Amino acid sequence: NEELIWQRTAYHFQPFKNWMNGIVYNSALLTTGPLFYKGWYHLFYQYNPVSAVWGNITWGHAVSHDLINWLHLPLAMVPDHWYDMNGVWTGSATFLPDGSLVMLYTGSTNESAQVQNLAYPADPSDPLLLNWVKSKANPVLVPPPGIGSKDFRDPTTAWFIESDNSWRVMIGSRNGMTGFSLVYKTKDFVEYELLDGVLHAVPGTGMWECVDFYPVSTTGNGGLDTSANGLGVKHVLKVSLDNYMNDYYAIGTYDARANTWTPDDPVADAGIGARVDYGKYYASKSFFDQNKGRRVLWSWIGETDSEQTDLRKGWASVQTIPRVVTFDEKTKTNLLQWPVEEVEALRTDAKDFSHVKVNPGSVVPLDVGTATQLDIEAEFVIDEAELVGTVEADVGYNCSTSAGAAGRSALGPFGLLVLADKDLLEQTAVYFYIGRAIDGSLKTYFCQDELRSSKAKDLVKRVHGSMVPVLHGEKLSVRILVDHSVVESFGQGGRTCITSRVYPTKAIYGAARVFLFNNATEAVVTATSVRVWGMNAASVPTMLS
Ligand code: FRU
Q1: CA of 239 to the centre of ligand 1 (A)
Q2: Of residues 217 and 34, which shows the higher confidence score?
Q3: b/e code 118-156 from CB counts within 10 Å (16+ = b)
Q4: Does ligand 1 have an atom closer than 6 angstroms to the CB of 207?
Q5: Cα-flanking dihedrals φ and ψ of residue 399, to 5°?
Q6: DSSP secondary structure, 251-318, as one string
Q7: Which of 77, 325, 344, 363 gives a 20 to 30 Å CA spacing to 120?
């Protein structure tokens, strides 16, 4: 089928075929230390080598110089010991001070219990890290008393605590519906001591998968090494809730001595914080990129079509474009996520549309040529007088329960339609919606509407999104990466992010178009600037084994 073939991405990472899920480990750039002489970013991912559905989990492996163009390498680790016979699951890498590398990962044993295993490069002088040795000491950690044998997985990158000269590793777990993270202390990654208490626990959340714990600078000092702490540092806790298949994060303060972490806002969503991304996005992980002094966040984007269709396609899932993640110094309440600058090297054929007025109830086509691989940056203002003049209270807007781009109110929705055919029978809307609270204050929402994205059957289509902070004097801004069946959107510089999988049947190949739209009943919207670039395909060859 033409449309199934069209769905493969051009610049989002994916294997040539079969199933992929979470990133296996905090992909790491190997530039420093005496053992690695050439800088390669390594991506290890959860891979089923024989089918487009989950199972037989091994480590797929690819390397890159720029996080965009990849070289596929042979499988890095396969299930071949009793302690990982049912799968070589998620893990994380840690660089030791001498530049060497250790890898901790979860094995699902021959009895499907979850244990933690240690591995290291067979030849540390090989920059491609083709071969891995599993430690004779495996498994190095088994579920502690009181923890279910299937509730103990996904060790983090370790961070170093100078006061007791040892490392900490976090592992997600649960007790009934209370999800939490356990912290272990280790000096050698072979022997571990479970620290008292849990770093954080949230009732009602269920199992915590792929926990991530990392420092962010509150003073604009770029990304921080995972062991950084002290003045001007806050710590982000991220959890993946498998009951909902969503990632959440909160920003807080870490006290290493007491083994506690206190969220800045303990009441926000019951202590679990905000969504990392409001769309189809799961099992994200970050790593410190010492080459560029930034923290990079990756995530798995699954499918929202049926398993049957995935089997017909022969593949399932892609990875996000890696995002730089920083603390938002303006709001001080959220992170900012932004695609790594390297993706901009794929931009071609820029088109500018400035000062386009979009009247209530109208659409404006943007002539951008082929519109299946795009990078879009747009800014909008709406007439202040309209804002002030609108008195109707419009409380409690919720993207997910709204009618999406088809709903109408005084001040929204308005934004862009991507992957739309000329008759707008298919369209994915990326939009803002401004609501007024009873006290008269305005709240801005950033949403993505998949409801009319495709005429195909057996799809999960939703409206995603949430409130987005807009500070006084700021324009409304959006960045959208369109790549065939993926739409990744960033509201207000990455304060709120939304990723969708969409599967148009008409708006494909040369029939895909882009529009500005304004479905508000009153507000006149001006797109003060819209830049649209075509995106070249990334190069992703395979090194044969
Ligand atoms: C996340 C996850 C992890 C596990 C792995 C198995 O999607 O379920 O918890 O380690 O994937 O493939």
Answers
A1: 12
A2: 217
A3: bbbbeebeebbbbebebbeebbbbebeeebeeebbbbbb
A4: no
A5: -50, -50
A6: EEEEETTTTEEEESSTTGGGGT-EES-SSS-EEEEEEEETTTTEEEEEEEE--SS-HHHHHHHTEE-E
A7: 325
Going from the Cα of 156 to the center of ligand 1, the distance in angstroms, rounded, reads: 13
Q: Which residue has its alpha carbon closest to ligand 1 atom 8?
A: 209
pLDDT tens readout for residues 346-393: 999 999 999 999 999 999 999 999 899 999 999 999 987 777 666 666
Q: Is 433 in the pocket of ligand 1 (CB under 6 A)?
A: no
Cα–Cα distance for residue pair 28/314, rounded to 1 Å: 29
Distance in angstroms (rounded) separating the CA atoms of residues 331 and 492: 11
CB of 22 closer than 6 angstroms to any ligand 1 atom: yes
φ/ψ of 136, rounded to 5, equals -65, -20
Q: Which pLDDT value is given to residue 34? A: 24
Looking up tokens 């001595």 gives 257
Q: Report pTM.
A: 0.95
310 φ/ψ angles, rounded to the nearest 5 degrees: -60, -40
> Which ligand 1 atom sits nearest the alpha carbon of residue 282?
7
Give the largest CA-CA distance in the chain: 72
Residue 43: both structure tokens together: 């991506």
Is the C-beta atom of 108 inside 6 A of ligand 1?
Answer: no
Return d(Cα 108, Cα 325) in angstroms, integer: 31
**Calpha distance 99→167 (Å, rounded):** 15
Q: Is 426 in the pocket of ligand 1 (CB under 6 A)?
A: no
Mean pLDDT of all residues belonging to the chain: 92
pLDDT for residue 38:
57
Q: Please write down the HEC assignment for all residues of 110-160.
A: CCCCEEEEEEEECCCCCCCCCCEEECCCCCCECCCCCCCCCCCECCCCCEE
pLDDT computed for residue 309 by the predictor: 95
Name residue, tokens 């604009």: 220
**Kind and range of the H or E element at 78?**
none
**What are the structure tokens assigned to 124, written together?**
């540390």
